[in-house]
Amino acid sequence: MEDKIKDVLKIDYGEVNDERGFFKEVIRLSEVEKQTGKVFNAKQVNHARSAKNTLRGMHVAPWNKVIYIVRGLAQVVIVDCRLDSPTFGKYESVAIGDENRSCIFVPAGCANSYLVLSEEADYMYFTDQEWEAGKEKSFAWNDPTIGIKWRLQGEPLLSERDKNNSSFLTVFPR
C-alpha cells in the first residue's frame, strides 16, 4: 500500500495449501476491532463479478467495509474523504486476489474503488450497515487532485454513474 491512511488495514493470516487446494481464514473481526478500535458486525454481504478493465468507484459510504477478491486479481484503491483526517485526499493502492488472497478493511468515510486486472474477478464486500439510498457519495475515478496511478490497459469499463461523477473537491470542499 502506498500512503498509510488511519484505520485502513491489509489483512492476511496466511493459508494452508496441500494436494486438495487451500484453506484461507479471510477475516477475524476481533483483530480488526483490536487494531482500529471499531466494532464491526457484518449486516450485509455483496458479491460482484466484473470483466477485465472494469473500474468501479470512487464510492464513499458512511459504513465500514471489508473487501475480499474471491477469484481473479484487482487493484483496490482507498481514498481518505474524512474532512477531519490528517490524510484527507490521500490514497492507498494495492493489488489483491489470487496473487495474495489478502482482504482490506475500509473505514467509514473513505472511498473505495477497484480495477479488474485479470480476465474476470469476483469481488465480495461485507458492510456493518445495510445499504440505504442517498447515503453514498461518489467522485471521479480519474480526478487529478487525487492523482491515482491506475494499472489500466486502455480505457476502463465504467457504469453511467461512474462516467458522470463530479470532481473530488466539488464533492468534498475543504
Description:
The protein is mainly beta and 174 residues long. The chain contains three helices and twelve strands. The chain has a single domain (9-171), classed as Jelly Rolls, CATH 2.60.120.10. It is 9% helix and 39% strand. The strands form three sheets. A five-stranded antiparallel sheet has the order 1-9-6-11-4, with no helix packed on it. Strands 8-7-10-5-12 form a five-stranded antiparallel sheet, with no helix packed on it. It has helices at residues 29-36, 160-163, 168-171, and strands at 9-11, 15-18, 21-24, 44-51, 55-60, 65-71, 73-80, 91-97, 103-106, 110-116, 120-127, 137-138.
List key phrases describing it.
39% strand; Jelly Rolls; five-stranded antiparallel beta sheet; 174 residues; 3 helices; mainly beta
Helix content: under 10%
Spatial strand sequence of the major β-sheet: 1-9-6-11-4
Q: What is the overall pLDDT average?
A: 91
> What are the segments in which pLDDT stays under 50 over at least 5 consecutive residues?
none
Give the strand content: 35-45%
Name of the CATH first level: Mainly Beta
Order of helices and strands: EEEHEEEEEEEEEHH
CATH superfamily: Jelly Rolls
Reported by name, the CATH topology is Jelly Rolls
Shape verdict: globular
| Count, helices | 3
Summarize the structure.
Helices cover 9% and strands 39% of the residues.
